[in-house]
Specification:
This protein has 254 residues and is of the alpha/beta class. Helix content is 35%, strand content 18%. It has ten helices and nine strands. The protein binds ligand BJW and zinc ion.
């Protein structure tokens, strides 16, 4: 039996499914993963140096402009067949939850619900000083022109600088999101882990958490990221090809 057949059998047998997704699921929508080199204006920067609280402290305008640019880029992107496969499975009657590390909103735009964001969202802002959520007028969300740096807006409550509502290294994950993700992962029958390198903790522990709770785990990735356990199935290939093929092999009517 091929891995695709084994995975299709698991999908037919198990109706309570969690999709655990990373940057790879949005790659075919044109959103670079964390391993890709930056393009255009940002080629001279390394994302790892822009995505930290220290970077924001040292150069808030640079970091704020980088996130404004990414927000614009995500706004132009469209969900791809991988995102649609996830929402179609729910329409076909499966009990589907999405736990994503991504800060884009492509799962939501493909029609999935609930979508739990472990690393926050590009659409949210919060105050760097008092941590309260903030709101922005649309004029404050204009994409920076070439080389233009825009200072972050100020918090209406304390005057502190507003920052993107994402989770940087060394910061805790949003407590409610983490708790709700763990609850769903521990009670699912099947976890499909799509397009994640599995190195960033604590999210990277999620597939093992599902296995330990007795679930079957399917990995979908262009690289072999499975550990070869008896309850693990590795599907090698791009998410936009593999997930529609999996639904088709399982006979899911779409
Ligand atoms: C495709 C594809 C296609 C491509 N189809 N596949 C325990 C041990 C060691 C370290 C730690 C630990 N606990 C905590 C830490 C520290 C740290 C950490 O994990 N460091 C590691 C690097 C070692 N973790 C944290 O700091 C976390 N906080 C925390 O734990 O708080 C408690 C604490 C506080 C204080 C001290 C210590 C602990 C927070 C982590 C926040 C991560 N933030 C980012 C940035 C978000 C904002 C932004 O985007 O700007 O989140 S980093 C980045 O990595 C982003 C992602 O969500 C995350 C995961 O990356 P992902 O999604 O896996 O993407 P890639 O690019 O790595 O991989 C893409 C994959 O797709 C690849 O496998 C490709 O092959 C594949 N692919 N095309 C299918 N078409
Ligand atoms: Zn504030």
């Amino acid at each position: 039996m091929t891995n695709l057949q084994r995975a299709a059998e698991a999908l037919r047998a198990f109706k309570k499914v969690v999709f655990f997704t990373g940057a790879g699921i949005s790659a075919e929508s044109g959103i670079p993963t964390f391993r890709d080199k930056l393009t255009g204006l940002w080629t001279k920067h390394e994302p790892q140096r822009l995505e930290t609280a220290n970077a924001f402290r040292e150069n808030p305008a640079l970091v704020w402009s980088w996130y404004l640019w990414r927000r614009h880029h995500v706004g132009q992107a469209k969900p791809n067949p991988a995102h649609y496969s996830v929402s179609q499975l729910a329409v076909a009657g499966w009990d589907v939850s999405v736990v994503t590390q991504n800060i884009d909103d492509l799962h939501e735009r493909a029609g999935s619900s609930p979508v739990i964001h472990l690393h926050g969202s590009l659409m949210d802002v919060k105050c760097f000083a008092c941590h309260r959520p903030g709101t922005l007028a649309s004029a404050q969300l204009e994409t920076p022109e070439e080389e233009q740096l825009i200072e972050p807006p100020r918090c209406a409550r304390c005057g502190g600088k507003l920052r993107p509502g994402v989770v940087w290294f060394g910061e805790n994950l949003p407590e409610n999101s983490w708790r709700s993700a763990v609850r769903r992962v521990k009670s699912c029958e099947l976890l499909v882990s799509v397009g994640t390198s599995g190195v960033v903790m604590p999210a990277a522990a999620i597939p093992d958490m599902a296995l330990a709770a007795g679930a079957t785990v399917i990995h979908v990735n262009i690289e072999d990221v499975g550990f070869g356990g008896t309850d693990e199935i590795m599907l090698l290939g791009s998410a936009g090809m593999v997930l529609p093929a999996l639904l088709k092999a399982a006979g899911v009517a779409v």
